[in-house]
Design goal:
The complex is a heterodimer. In chain A, about 5% of the residues lie in helices and about 40% in strands. Chain A is mainly beta. Chain A is globular, with a radius of gyration of 22 Å. Chain B is about 35% helix and about 15% strand. The chains are: A mainly beta, B alpha+beta.
Amino acid sequence: MKLLGLGLLLGAIALAQTDPGAWTSYGKNSFGWRYSDLDQINVSTVSRLAPQWMFQTNVPGKNETTPLVFGRMMYITGPSNTAWALDALTGRQIWAYRSAPPARLDLCCGPVNRGFAVQGNKLFKVDLEGRLLAMDAQSGAVLWQATLDDYKKGYSATAAPLIVKNLVVTGMAGAEYGTRGFIDAYDVNTGKRVWRFYTVAAEGEPGGESWAGDSWKRGGGATWVTGTYDPELNTIYWGTGNPGPDLNGSSRPGDNLYTCSVVALDADTGKLKWHFQMTPHDLHDWDAISDPVPVDLTRNGRKIKALMQANRNGFFYALDRTNGKLLLTKAYTKVTWADGIGADGRPNLVSGQDPTEEGNRACPGMGGGHNWQATAYSPQTGYYYFSSSDRCMLYYKTDQEFVEGQWYQASTVGRDEAGGGRILALDPNTGNTVWQFEMVSTPTAGVLATAGGLVFTGDAEGYLIAFDARTGKVLWRFQTGGTVIAPPISYTLNGRQYIAVAAGQTMLTFALPK
Amino acid sequence: MSRLASIFFVAAVCLAQETNPLASDPKAAEVGRWSFRIYCAPCHGIHADGGRGPDLTLGTYAAGDRDIDLFRVISRGVPGTEMAAYGGRVEDEGIWRMVAYIKSVARHDNSNLQGDAGAGQKIFWGKGGCGACHRVADKGSGPGPDLTRVGRQRSVAYLRTSIVNPDADVTPGYGTVTVITREGKSIVGVEKSYDNFSAQLVDLSGHYYSFLREDVTSMKRESRSLMPSSYGRLLSEGEINDLLAYMISLRGGQ
């Protein structure tokens, strides 16, 4: 291709990514709102929403991808190191990526992947064995790759990367294998690592006193869900996971910083600006990995740059995102382990809730509350939408010796109690639930909010559901035939608004009839 | 090594693996217990005495009673059941340690059962009327769980509780669904499928129903059994022991 032609093509791709009808990052905007400005599909028209095409991946495993759509193409990732570029009009495959994962890979929760990031003509994704890839959007060719850490020591990767200026920022997974968590930033052009922030403070570092002995070396704090970015404050917000071993804290007395926290990092250097630890010395696997969502709230008539999170420990938090101070907290599900959160952000603990050899019952269950599933904020309604599993569990602790690369949970939970969950609309100014839709099974899917006054999500039994964003009334549903785990997205093509979601092993798209 | 010698060597290794190579390791069972609590306890119970998965303290196992049988099941799983394969997640030595732990908790407590299996069989198919809802091999029918192999799957204590208090632990897939139709009719049955928008159920007469939530007044899923809760009064203690002896003898005809 001539240089001029290549330049025009790259220019067209860049233009396509600024198209308001495109979807070009995990959380739609850098705040992770998952809010689409599109309103062709709305409360009046959604009843006519109909399937347009389906793409079968034929790859077994949970499908958690957030598709990216721009330049007439859809880019999706799948389980077990797979990805595809699809023609957005027809669903026909343009290219496919497959890379067999190592034969023996230590994964807590399946060979999943949550999607691409994009800048210019480069797509970015992680492979399970802790590898970050840059790929050519036109061909799928791998342009560079970087190794996050050694998969033989239990490190892995599943999250969609986050683009911040000229950096591709990524987390890691593997806190159940005695790893030490981190957030990495790589140069988008060279793949060279620019900075790393360890989510577990080492001996001698600030926060290192919150660990005993060398327990920090296997302290967990995985960063397995994509963070967010505030360009005005030049700050990256990222949630961190459980300390290790999960349910037996006897080897790690102390708060175990910076696990089960939201960390605010300088985007250029990765230096810690502030942290807020929701669950000090966690013993219930209550990762703080749910989307940390920047939003402006009004408190006492004053506008505050806030950051909100529906934490797995059962509490909704709103923080001042300039300094990490607590603004508001409120339980959104049944909570028995704490009877509130103090003004300093520390929980008021209730006794008898910690795991024991014979088991103690505590609420929420191990998955939370709200777990990792993508959340949505609608500036139109001012509500925050997320799922909650409302159950309790028996928590056991077990002594376990650490063996490098081996499962290091030192714990288990009793069989799940029967129980479903809810999709919630929450007012982040008050923490009050505005409406809720009760589900018969634990909610599985992420959420999308649109300017059409709609909220979309899926369920374990395969339904894609559209709610009235103001009232929670079900306005439309479609049985996809596979459990919906991924979040739906929305985009336009040729003047038509589409909804897309992965369900089972299928990518589906929907639009109004022509 | 000659080919013949190789065959002998392989045969010797296989023979050696029939029994647990860590059987003489005094720590194997204790270390195996740690792993058991993490991997196995969610289904088999924190004390290995069963739950959603079979009771492993009986001293007899669906997969076979040799060490190698347990090793194979843990390593490869059981296709068609919820028993997953752990061979990819746990090293062979770790699996042998779990085998050591499982063998260490075998109580063989069924030998203490006082009942008469023959008398229990008569109660099951006669006075108890159990065959109206449960199948054993090719006999009986109905919407209740198949009991053909229940003696390998459940403990005496679990079965005793199930007989006198059927709601104590309902086998997944056998919960109760109640639908009130627009006409005010109540239809109660065993859940075949249930989701946010519909219910499918079979009543005690074997009639199949499917409803959309929007077409009925209400639908409700309950974690209770449709089995009568009156057996504790209907049967004497001796009769329940007889019934238990019969049920524990049900091992799939193997």
